[in-house]
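Quiz preparation item.
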């Protein structure tokens, strides 16, 4: 029973990273951006991320199951960092309307996911393999983010870096 509760906790924490997507919606700003034709339809993102977040939670639980919190403290810390970086991308891109900054952030996220896979593998190979589709999707998302930023660089820079009394907007 304890193991099942811990699995649920890992899933809740994993899906909590998605909460920023509920708060920071694409909105009109995103709709007006020039996006590449190879961008998937908007409806596809939610189901893909749901599967990925479930896999991320399961992956963390498998490492915990194998080594426990004490035995995998550093490993699970790397895992936690990638979840925080995952949660940070949406407010940067959609909240601040900063695709250039989001592109930098998603590259750091990509490295953190790769790092998580590397540190998970010796503990539980299945846990590491569960993160490979996540890394692949974030690779695609990074390419999409970069494409959107390049296509809209002058527009997004002028909108997001205007000086107003009291600071930058």
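Solution:
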């Amino acid at each position: 029973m304890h193991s099942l509760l811990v699995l649920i906790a890992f899933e809740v924490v994993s899906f909590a990273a998605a909460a920023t997507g509920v708060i920071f919606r694409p909105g009109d700003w995103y709709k007006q951006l020039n996006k590449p034709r190879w961008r998937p339809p908007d409806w596809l993102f939610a189901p893909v991320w749901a599967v990925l977040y479930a896999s991320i939670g399961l992956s963390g639980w498998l490492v915990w199951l194998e080594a426990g919190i004490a035995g995998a403290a550093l490993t699970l810390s790397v895992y936690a960092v990638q979840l925080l970086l995952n949660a940070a991308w949406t407010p940067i891109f959609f909240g601040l309307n900063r695709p250039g900054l989001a592109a930098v952030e998603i590259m750091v996220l990509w490295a953190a996911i790769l790092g998580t896979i590397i540190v998970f593998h010796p503990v539980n190979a299945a846990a590491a393999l569960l993160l490979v589709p996540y890394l692949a999707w974030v690779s695609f998302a990074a390419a999409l983010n970069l494409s959107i930023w390049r296509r809209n660089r002058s527009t997004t820079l002028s909108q997001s870096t205007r000086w107003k009394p009291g600071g930058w907007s």
